[in-house]
């Protein structure tokens, strides 16, 4: 009964997405869990130099923010937003292993039917098509079960890898948001990119398979 109520309030949650095979392995999206704490903390503490230049500041230092003891409140905050229909917080799994996160946020229904999407992938597995596959699965989920019309993302102009991922998924640039977000100690410009369901013209995952970037498992 509660599942029925939450899924009608929040279409597409807590449904997983995938699988899709890329060079690094088999990629899936599944909801964040309380027991992700140890691997989340270990990975994000080790990957500080890889992640910090691109992630919004929280006012907390990196070590405290990513201590294993921080995860229960981070995770329950995300899941509470998910229950309210405002977020879909996913873990990116590669061959069943925690390898990053993909989050769909500010989900709005009605006449807007829009959300933002963001992601990170552990440095040990970058360059293998994981973010590209996760973003394609996330987009298909947004335009399918979540029934959105538009998905947007913001990215620093200097973030060449993430811009490449967004371009491969079909996002187009809409403008430059000046001093948009506090990242890595300063207010940073971000490019606003977006895609609507009409522009996708089918499935993002199918397009990756068609262009030889991924395979169905
Ligand atoms: N210049 C140009 N292209 C680059 C560069 C570079 N310096 N570095 C990598 N790339 C390209 C790769 O060639 C690859 O394209 P290809 O597959 O066509 O060759 C693409 O960028 C990366 O594709 P994937 O392998 O699918 O991506 P990956 O799994 O390596 O993850 C990501 C990329 C998410 C940016 C990862 O490096 C990461 O987590 N970085 C730190 C956090 C971050 O930047 N998150 C994104 C913030 S913006 C947002 O969320 C919308």
Automatic annotation (TrEMBL):
Domain N-acetyltransferase: residue ranges: 27-194
InterPro entries given in the database record: Acyl_CoA_acyltransferase, GNAT_dom, N-acetyltransferase
Family matches, as Gene3D superfamilies: 3.40.630.30
Pfam families: Acetyltransf_3
Keyword Transferase: yes
Keywords, ordered alphabetically: Acyltransferase, Transferase
Top-rank taxon: Bacteria
Entry similarity comment: Belongs to the acetyltransferase family. RimJ subfamily.
Protein name per its UniProtKB record: GNAT family N-acetyltransferase
Taxonomic placement: Bacteria, Bacillati, Actinomycetota, Actinomycetes, Mycobacteriales
